[in-house]
Amino acid sequence: MAGSWTPDGFILDLDGTVYAGSRPIDGAAETIGYLRSRGKRVVFLSNRGNISRRMCRERLAAMGIPCEAEDIILTSSVVARYLREHEPDARVWVLGEQGLRDELALHGVRFAVRPQDADRLVVTLHETLTYAELNDAFRAVRAGARIIATNRDKTFPGEDGESIDVGAVLAALEHATGVAADVVVGKPSPAMARAALDRLGLPPERCLIVGDSPGSDIALGKRAGIRTALVLSGSVTREEAEAMAPAERPDWMLDSLADLRRLLEEMER
Fold first, then answer.
1. Number of domains observed in the structure of the chain
2. CA distance 200 to 195
3. Count of H helices and E strands in the chain?
4. Beta strands in 150-204 (DSSP E)
5. Global confidence as pTM
6. What is the bridge-based pairing of β-strands 161-164 and 155-158?
7. How does DSSP classify residue 18?
8. Angle CA 153–95–135, to nearest 5
9. Is residue 110 over pLDDT 50?
10. Maximum alpha-carbon separation in the chain
11. Residue 240 and residue 218 in contact, taking contact as beta carbons nearer than 8 Å
């Protein structure tokens, strides 16, 4: 692409890009350190909604990637901000884990005492989901709660392989209740792009988004006018990436985040 263009801001996906479960992707920490040494701005953008920014910051620090909590944009924090700004009086019932509850509480979101008292059902990834919890969520919607979801991803790249994500649970609730989620905040939504660009303090044309998901990361970049790099360390193979429709293809394709330094050096020649 683009002759002398080089990005000043980098929006990095987490699962499958920076790490896989508790294991960092080879070269990720070194690449992020290199970007920072060049004065580049870096934010992390993830559809994870079952963890808080504090939890994510601690995970990254353990991998040798220090950062401020404000540099981490998760669907848990974006959904919390949405509720605070647009529905401050809503009482919510959560189908999710403690990380989401922590982020909601940090933003002053109110919790319903019983499912039938909820104005909103917030749905996110729940890795220890029980039938009783799913049924409570079902009953909240039956009693009138509207559904807000962190994302619709079907799967995510875990440490031991591909794992089921929020989309399947959300589909089950929508099917059982006949009620569709009216708000989904995760990538590729404009809300996630705005949050990342606001933190970077840069316009979209000066940024590059790097991620492993064509449907989330690359689609977000296409919609927001942000150039894109797809890494093959997560959810797609090279064959799958090369079979993408021309309009959906990334601007660059990398084996992993470790190749980003080489790409940046090529841009600057």
1. 2
2. 9
3. 10, 15
4. 155-158, 161-164, 183-184
5. 0.91
6. antiparallel
7. T
8. 110
9. yes
10. 61
11. no
